[in-house]
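Support request from a user on the community tier.

User writes: "When I paste my structure tokens into the form, the page sometimes reloads and wipes my input. The last time it worked, I copied everything first. Here is what I submitted, just in case something in the input itself triggers the reload:"
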């Protein structure tokens, strides 16, 4: 298939790109490198030994989108592009609505003009909001608690309406849990700009000596060890999930929302222990107050993905940690080492 990836140079995008190239699809990437490095694409090209098109462009630019759609003629789009920092979304909600919601509208209009009817969308478990029950299944009410989460929710609703305009349209809303890990080669991985917001890149930067100590945000939650519990999923499992979802929407029309998670909860302290085991490095901890807006715990009911397109996670917590450590130790400054 000819597949267009928006945000294909980012963390999840680059791993999915590699996966799809290895499956012999034809790929085209659009990325404006606002939170990604061109070096990631060079490394994917090297790892896959395959050529793919890429454009330094924003999805807000409908003229550029038309040019790219006209020349590449994609049969499907995987839409990763978007802003994703929860805290920043409270400070700059309009930027989030513009980039994420308006950007998606521009993309869908370009798809309509090019008669491209299939899309896989990077949604998030954050659309569920405060749990009414756990694990979250796809029928759980949607009530996101911050502007970032609301952009994901609004885009899901827009995509549902878009799908109704043509019986041949096919939409897959993939609700990611907490993606971590890196490609086992150590050549590509997560390279956040500035101070990492998320747990795993922070642990990795403490381990490599870029940060002195991990702040554990809250140890008084109603969880087995008092620290926050999340459903961590290896980014390569997530990438395989996209390939499986894409295959599904080439044979089915309409809209489906599907959780991509491991289906089990892991606490901050369990994650730190697994990372110490995998790396042999000890991680200094400081118990800090709860981070505003954090939920105590959540994890996925991941059975729908298994039923619908026979996908489930394969990689363990130790593999996630070992792969992050390989990436971090081979690239102490991320892609900055070579660019
Ligand atoms: C965060 C976002 C979520 C987004 C997801 C993407 C927030 C509030 N939520 O989720 O919307 O979809 O990233 O991956 O930012 N922790 C620490 N110390 C740290 C960092 C994190 O103790 O330095 C704890 C957190 O309190 C939490 C767990 O680690 O219990 C996971 O945090 P994080 O990796 O930021 O993910 P989420 O909060 O689940």
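"...and here is what came back when it finally went through:"
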């Amino acid at each position: 298939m000819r597949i267009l990836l928006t945000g294909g140079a980012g963390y999840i995008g680059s791993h999915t790109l590699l996966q799809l190239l290895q499956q012999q699809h034809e790929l085209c990437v659009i990325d404006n490198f606002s939170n990604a490095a061109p070096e990631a694409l060079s490394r994917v090209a090297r790892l896959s030994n395959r050529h793919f098109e890429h454009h330094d462009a924003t999805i807000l630019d409908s003229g550029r989108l038309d040019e790219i759609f006209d020349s590449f003629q994609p049969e499907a789009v995987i839409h990763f592009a978007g802003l994703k920092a929860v805290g920043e979304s409270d400070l700059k909600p309009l930027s989030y609505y513009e980039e994420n919601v308006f950007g998606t509208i521009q993309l869908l209009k370009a798809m309509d003009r090019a008669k491209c009817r299939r899309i896989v969308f990077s949604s998030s478990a954050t659309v569920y909001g405060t749990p009414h029950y756990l694990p979250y299944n796809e029928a759980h009410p949607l009530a996101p608690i911050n502007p970032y989460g609301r952009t994901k929710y609004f885009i899901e609703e827009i995509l549902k309406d878009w799908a109704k305009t043509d019986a041949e349209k096919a939409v897959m809303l993939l609700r990611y849990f907490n993606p971590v890990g890196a490609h086992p080669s150590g050549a590509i991985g997560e390279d956040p700009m500035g101070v990492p917001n998320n747990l795993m890149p922070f642990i990795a930067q403490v381990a490599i000596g870029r940060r002195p100590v991990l702040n554990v945000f809250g140890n008084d939650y109603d969880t087995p060890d008092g620290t926050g519990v999340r459903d961590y999923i290896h980014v390569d499992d997530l990438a395989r999930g996209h390939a499986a979802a894409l295959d599904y929407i080439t044979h089915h029309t309409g809209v489906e929302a599907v959780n991509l998670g491991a289906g089990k909860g892991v606490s901050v302290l369990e994650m730190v222990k697994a990372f110490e085991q995998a790396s042999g490095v000890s991680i200094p901890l400081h118990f800090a107050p709860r981070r505003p807006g954090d939920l105590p715990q959540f994890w996925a009911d991941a059975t729908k993905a298994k039923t619908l397109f026979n996908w489930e996670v394969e990689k363990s917590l130790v593999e996630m940690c070992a792969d992050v450590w390989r990436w971090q130790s081979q690239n102490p400054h991320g892609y900055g080492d070579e660019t």
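Agent notes: The reload is a front-end session timeout and is unrelated to the input. The radius of gyration is 19 Å. Residues 7 and 13 are 6 Å apart (CA to CA). Escalated to web team.
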